[in-house]
Every structure is written in structure tokens, then in C-alpha cells.
């Protein structure tokens, strides 16, 4: 078993959330978990094809960051593990599921599939199959926000971009080059490293000379923060600070969220490389159970109310599957559509 890093401590007493906020966070995380569980079922039933990478266990990162931003206004750049980022950004579950089924009603019109979720309406800049591919794209989105505000004089151009990527991407050249430019230009961007300890089958500690990724921010004179990625309140707290910093023109932040994927790298991965002891260490830190316990302990809701949310979300997932199954395939006559931008 690879030696575990000590998870950063977070004082929950320093954070106060309302019942509405607690429900919003819990509902979003449950939506992500139930959606991914249904994806696994549909994949093994032959309803989905290709590679499908699930997000189980990492929900606190997506919810904690994206729900601290402005829905439909700010931008989100994802990875090939992008279903839950899309859901947190507001893309309807039925459109994400339909995309996984390769249907015309999917958020990418059935052209993208699991690794290429996209929605202009929701500020989702896309999922990317290549490691670190989305990092410079996110910087471009952040640059245009800054340019529109400072050069074109648009006072409403204060959008923030959140760029998600894994620990393996932090060893890629695009990571270093883009962080350097973002720091030089003080771009309104948040770099979010979802450090789930494994780059496919390579343990993080064996692949990098500095395992503490957030410390790499110091090289670029950038704020670097380490956070417990299994605690949505901790993630939300550092994300809110980073968003405020970016929106105020104070530049980028590198957030390293220590998290763990509960399933293999993809649904084609038998997950035999990770030890049972390591998995149990992280399973016991399930972010959804942690938030549920917090909500009940602080009298924000009862267990029955949380179960009602679970039931509501399950109904949403079941409806999404029915929608995807009944949706039409893309019309072959439109095979070459969407290759180039279209006139509005």
C-alpha cells in the first residue's frame, strides 16, 4: 500500500450553511453518484460503447467547485471523466444520458459520447480525451473574459473559468506552460487538480518528483491550496475564496483536491492494481455520507428528508434513461454537420 498523505483538516465549525444550501450540495452529489451507478448498469447491458470513466467518490470536488460559481455564466473545462462535471454545471441528466447513448438529443448531439460532453448554454467547454488537453482551452476562455473586460470595456465580462484535470496531467508540459501564462496575465481561472492517486495504473507518488502538486504553484507566484477532496464543505470554502480572487482581478489559484475514485480507471478496468487496504481507507471517507452526517448532526434536515431527496434523484435518473432510449439516432444526412461553426 502506498503511504497515505495526511488529509488537510477542515474546521466545520467555521462554516455555516443554510438548509437550502445543504440540500443543494447533497442533491448535486447524489445526482452524480446515482447517475454514474446507472451508467455502469447501462454499459454492462450494452447500451453504451467505447470507454466510460466514472466519477464515483469524487463528487465533493465537482459539487464544491462548480456550485461556488455562477451557473450558465462562468466556464467549466473538464476531462474524459466529465459526466458529473456536466451535471454540476446544470446540463440536464437526460441530455447527458442521451449523449452516452449516442442520441441526437444528447448535449453534444450524439457526436461526443462519454469523453466529450459539451454545452455552450451551460458554459461547459467540453470533456477532453487527451490528458491535459483542456488546460490551455480553459486558459483561452479565461483570457477572453479578461480581454473583454479590460480592453473592450465590457463591465459584465467578469466570468471565472474552472479547469479540472487529474494528477497525471500535472506532469504534462501543458500544465506548466499554461500556469505560467495564467500567472503572468493574472487570468481569472481556477486550476483544480483532482488527485485521485492513480493515473490509470500508475501510482501518483511513483510518477512525480514532487507529489504535493499544490506546491508547484509557488514557482509561478500563484496561490496554491491543498484541500480534502472528500469533504464538500472544505472544497466549497477554498473554491469560494479562489472564485472571489479571480473575479476581483487577483489572478489564478491552483487547488489540489485529495480524492479517490471508487471504481477502476474505466469500466473496462478490472481494478486489480489498487490494494484492498487502500480502497477501504478511502471508502470509509465517502463524501456523500460525510455531508449527510453533517446535515443531520446540525439539524438542517432529518434522515427521512435526505431519503426523500434520494428518491427524487432516482426518479430523475430513471426518466433520463427512458428519454435516452426513446430518443432518435443522429440523422446520417447530417454526418458532416458541426465540423465547422454555423451561422446563427
List keywords for this structure.
two-stranded antiparallel sheet; alpha/beta; 344 residues; 11 helices
Q: Could you provide a short overview of the structure?
A:
The chain is built from eleven helices and seven strands.
User: What is the ordering of alpha helices and beta strands?
Assistant: HHEHHHEHEEEHEHEHHH
Q: In angstroms, what separates the terminal alpha carbons?
A: 55 Å
> Roughly what is the average pLDDT, rounded to an integer?
95
Number of strands: 7
- Assign the CATH superfamily: Thiamin diphosphate (ThDP)-binding fold, Pyr/PP domains
| Radius of gyration, whole Å | 19 Å
- Uncertain segments are none
Structural class: alpha/beta
Number of structural units classed as domains: 1
Query: What would CATH call the architecture?
Result: 3-Layer(aba) Sandwich
* Count of alpha and pi helical runs: 11
What is the CATH C level class, in words? Alpha Beta
**CATH fold name:** Rossmann fold
- State the share of residues found in helices, binned by percent: 40-55%
> What is the overall shape?
globular
Quaternary structure classification: single chain
